[in-house]
Amino acid sequence: MSRADHMDVAAYALGVLDEHDTERFEEHLATCWACAAELETMVPVVGLLSGIDGETMTALEQTQTDPALLDRTLVAVRAHRRRTRFRQVLATAAAVVVFGGLTGVGFANIVEDSAPPNVVAEPTSGPTGPAVPRSTGPDGPGVGGDKGLPEGKQHDEVDATTGVEATFFVARKDFGTNVNFILAKLPGPRTCRLVVVRDNNTSEVLSTWSVPGGGYGTNTNATKLTLSAATATPTGQIKHFQVQSVDVNGVASPLVTIPID
């Protein structure tokens, strides 16, 4: 960029550049923090001149006044006509001054200080999300007593044949039915699944999971297994839930059945 471009600051501030020179200077201003800083210092002067009425200047132009004074007033009129555009560009100029003089540390501080305080991202959930199995200890959140139970009606069952213990919390929802369940005395290794059986004897697999060799809620591993699932089937149309064991050939056998009254 030529030296002349750096000398156009005053002319630009007062609005005396033609359209072509104005566009050229604004392109230069976007990358030159020195010109931007100089332009910023002219704000008070331009602000004073912008308050002069244009009609008064026209009247003065038609009189035989001091040529120097006439020139100054005409410049003020042009500045008045252009002050809106000047203010928009001045915002860009100020940004160039700030960012041109910042160090990496200073910039990092500005970014950090601009963040809104105490903003914490919260997890979201919905009926369409897959059921995510999770393991908790017997005294974990949502398991018994004063720590609070999952929502829904509680159903407790112990299978007389397998010995598997199940506690189900079944909740009616607009989307169908939500179920949280806890399993214990569940030996492994094995693959299991949860099936919902409807009143019309149709069924649907809601969730599948693997049981490690130590099992859950056993002498080897005292930790009970806590899982969640959902179905579009209304609660009133559910006959029972059933936890099944599935062998390598895909053949399922019941481990515990939970009737829904």
Would you write up a description of this structure?
21% of the residues are buried. The protein has two domains: 112 residues, no CATH class; 126 residues, Immunoglobulin-like (Sandwich). The chain contains eight helices and nine strands. The protein is of the alpha+beta class and 261 residues long. Helix content is 35%, strand content 26%.
How would you concisely characterize the structure shown here?
The chain contains eight helices and nine strands. The protein is of the alpha+beta class.
Secondary-structure topology with pairs:
Elements: H1 3-6, H2 9-14, H3 19-29, H4 33-41, H5 43-50, H6 54-61, H7 67-100, H8 104-114, E1 134-135, E2 153-158, E3 165-173, E4 176-184, E5 190-198, E6 203-211, E7 225-231, E8 238-246, E9 252-259
Helix pairs in contact: 4-7, 5-7, 6-7
Tell the overall outline.
rod-shaped
Looking at the overall shape, the CATH architecture of the largest domain is Sandwich
Annotated CATH topology of the largest domain:
Immunoglobulin-like
Q: Percent of residues in beta strands?
A: 25-35%
Query: Helicity level, as a percent range?
Result: 25-40%
The pLDDT mean sits at 73
Strand and helix order: HHHHHHHHEEEEEEEEE
Please give the number of β-strands.
9
Total domain modules:
2
Through-space gap between termini: 84 Å
Widest sheet: strand ordering:
1-7-4-3-2
CATH class (first level) name of the largest domain = Mainly Beta
The radius of gyration is 38 Å
- The secondary structure category is alpha+beta
Q: Name the poorly predicted regions.
A: 102-146
Could you give a short account of the major beta sheet? 5 strands, antiparallel
Number of helices: 8
Organism: Micromonospora thermarum
Transmembrane segments: 89-111
InterPro entries: Anti_sigma_zinc_sf
Protein name: RNA polymerase subunit sigma
